Amino acid sequence: MEINVKRSCIGTLMTIIWLTPAWGHHSHSNYQLLEYTQLTGTVVEMRWMNPHTWIYLEVTGEDGVSSLWAVEGGSPNALTNNGWGPDILQPGDEISVRCHRLRDGGSSCLLGFVTFPDGEERRGFITPAGG
């Protein structure tokens, strides 16, 4: 019986150790998760890669100055399950995004929703702040 308890403890410990990197990887504490930022701009590039997709968006501010935004999306698998594909966005497409901006104010955000050129809106990431 004592051997089974030791094996159980070792198994539990190994599971916790194995899962720890996954917990750390999925932290989005660097984003302002309780509020959305609305951006409208031109797609420069979309990178369809693991572990997360990226949309690079040229956004012109109210002052007329344009800046490049890096928008972190869900994994290719998660987006595929939501009807996306690797060619869904093309350079030159005009889109709007609702995203969670970096806490430090940088030009990057965690994607919540995309409004495509045809007006359709789709979720781009499962976000804690909901819809």
Task: Report on the architecture of this protein.
There is one protein chain. This protein has a domain at 37-123: OB fold (Dihydrolipoamide Acetyltransferase, E2P). The protein starts with a helix and ends in an 8-residue tail after the last strand. It has a five-stranded mixed barrel. Mean pLDDT is 82; it is low at 15-24 and 127-131. It has helices spanning 2-25, 76-81, and strands at 37-47, 54-60, 66-72, 94-101, 108-115, 121-123. It has 131 residues and is an alpha+beta fold. A hairpin with a 6-residue loop joins strand 1 and strand 2 (54-60). The protein is globular and about 70 Å long.
Helix content: 10-25%
Number of helices: 2
Strand content: 25-35%
Distance, first to last CA: 51 Å
Order of helices and strands, N to C?
Answer: HEEEHEEE
Mean pLDDT: 82
Q: The CATH topology of the domain at 37-123 is what? A: OB fold (Dihydrolipoamide Acetyltransferase, E2P)
Main-sheet strand order equals: 1-2-3-5-4
Radius of gyration (CA) equals: 19 Å
Secondary-structure-based class equals alpha+beta
The CATH C-level name of the domain at 37-123 is: Mainly Beta
CATH architecture of the domain at 37-123: Beta Barrel
